[in-house]
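Let us work through a complete example step by step.
Step 1: write down the sequence.
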Amino acid sequence: MSFDTSQLQFATRESKATIEQGLALAPRFDEHGLIPAMAIDHKTNEPLMLAYMNAESLKMTIALGEAVYYSRSRKEIWHKGKTSGEYQIVKEIRLDCDQDAIVLKVEQLGGGCCHTKASTCFYRRVDTQNLREGIVALDRV
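Step 2: predict the structure and record it as tokens.
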């Protein structure tokens, strides 16, 4: 389903009760106009990547049904997969209780989601069992 993003409006953030218990989308963007968005696999719930959205990219994501982020380094809208072919088809969008973080459940297309060509950006974990001389090591997932 695709439609003009100018048709989409976010609700005003009126009260804590309305934000936490209401059913209107009223995202809280930070001082830079961004909100963190975690993409996870819609079938396995494995984490894929963490990115940020601004109001425009969130509206585009809703309208297109594909993940659209805001690149902090390039300072521009980033339609995931447009150049790489690694599109993310959005199956579900969730917000946390105070609507300042997003989880996208996606179908990841292409070779993977990470710029390293890994299937996930979260391909390492902290190895809490092998602390060496106070240095925290990582191991591959």
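Step 3: interpret the result. The chain has two helices and eight strands.
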